[in-house]
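Working notes for the structural subgroup meeting. M.R. asked for a predicted model of this chain before we commit to crystallization trials. I am recording the input and output together here so anyone reviewing the notebook later can reproduce the run.

Input as submitted:
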Amino acid sequence: MEILEKLTKENKPLEVITNIDEFTKFAAKAFDCEFNGTARFFPWGAPKKIPQIFNIGVIYGASGSGKSTLLKTFGNEEKFEWDPKKSIVSHFSTPADAIDKLGAVGLNSIPSWYKPYHVLSNGEKFRAELARKIKDGAVIDEFTSVVDRNVAKAVSVSLSKYIKRNNIKNIILATCHEDILEWLEPDWVINTNSGEVYSGNFSNAQISISKYIQHQGISGQCLRTIII
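Returned structure, recorded in token form:
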């Protein structure tokens, strides 16, 4: 693991003002703290030493550590409209693009392709949204937050392979789950718990995509959801 740099907190805080009422007064008294109606957060400064061109970057850290705020310095996450009268497979530029990208996120259930977005499960919605976001410069928050961990790892492997095979540039994912990092094999990682920026093989136990099939932690049913 190579540490590229150590981020510092910005001097100017982000602030939000809320009303002081019986609830905030009760909470302040219960925990013996003072609250004047202003909440402050000092975000991490933007990194200076990550490469300008890369395939995958990851912002990792616990909830409340500044991931989403830092992610916004790279761009705004794209939001999509879903036609309730159209199948999810009908929302891509071409049929081939739909098949490739839905496969890249592990949404390989043909019956699900024919359903409209609003009837999908939460996990299927996450993967359908993710499929439409895959492009140069995409920023994606809450990556794998609503899927179980085996699916999260399978999606990470398949997505990483698709991005690198098609040489898609500068995709940045924010996540609170450390377990997917070795499966994504990103070019760099920002740890918002510590402010450290890592490069390359940040994990001593990193598992390459080429060894994925032989790995015993993901097997059986899970393998039916991805294309290798």
